[in-house]
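Quick start: read one record
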Amino acid sequence: MYEHHTEPLLPLRMFLRRLIRHVFLAASLLLGSLAIGVMGYHGFEQISWIDSLLNASMILGGMGPVAELHTTGGKLFASFYALFSGIIFLVTAGILIAPLAHRLLHHLHMKEKRNTTKVD
């Protein structure tokens, strides 16, 4: 998926295409995670769809739940969903940062290689 350090830097147009693919992957992951939360809150707590969306969005965004939970199943779901959301946040950040970090490191490695060949 990424070019090897011995290969030239990816042209800007192809890099932007890669970046867009990563953004779509991250958005898909967030939407899928949000859907899990909405279904869980609606199923376990019998909360309306819009309130389930609000609760799932708030948990996924790191803010905390809005509606009070009444059932044991709902409280267990909310606990696991909060932990899951923390992991999803880290994974999403990694997906978004990966192409940028790779390009920067690849560029720096190419500069380093050019500097060492000039000295020799």
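Helices lie at 12-45, 49-60, 72-119.
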